[in-house]
User: What shape does this take?
Amino acid sequence: MDDTVWRQSSLPVSRGALGTRRVDQLALPASLASVHSAFDLMKQIYPQVDVNCIVSPAISHWQVKSISQPPILTLRSTQKAWDIPIVDQHYQTLLDASSQAERARLVAVSAKDSGAWLNALPISVLGNLLDDNSFRISVGLLLGARLRDPHVCRCKKLVDELGRHGLSCQLSAGRHSRHPALNDSIHRALISCKVPNVLEPNGILRDDQKRPDGLTLIPWQQGKALVLDVTCVDTVKKTYLRGSAGQLGYAAHKAEELKRHKYRDPDGRYLFCPVAFETFGPFGNEASSLIQ
Assistant: This one.
């Protein structure tokens, strides 16, 4: 890890990091919250105490680090109220110093659901237990760390030290296996919700013999069955890079639009839901709605 990667890793999971917080980042918010939460007790013990004299130097130091105004009085006893502005400033500093590709990565990994895998219990029977190498690669991609030595891929393109080429390479074995893995996860989730469904049904919506990824066997809404088609797109692929750097979930939203255009039902027999995910975590709007 270089300094930039190490600084990102110390941010909370909600900001696209590991949540391994640094003591020097937490000390000031913890101290300010502690003093304010104990102020009533301090007044009982020593009525002449002036809390402003105690915390004014610390608040001034906090304002320099966070570049914001102190929280309202009712929130000053909460550590989160003091911590989040510092975290946001730290995150913004990383964004401002990033290239377009790194900015797209940072925006994507800070999405609400992107860090959910870090909070999942590592239970092997549920498929939640990553082996050591998979975990190392996942963390490296999350933080933008160096993963391997540069080399030339079978497709004749250069694989840099960040190792992201495999996320979109046409010859990548992992790229093909992640699609049925996503299908299976959604299939099992629907089954657990008492919604029987089948994978890859024939003769649905398409005239070119291509099959969608799923079909519910009972009506989903408006008396119609739900047809699903899942896709996973690379956040930092050149096609989406510029949009991903400025808009959260840009690649997934575009993929869903493309899927909806392909699967048009002239008879209105089915409800169609494109389910798009990005390699760095964000869900498409319709994927998020379906999962919720």
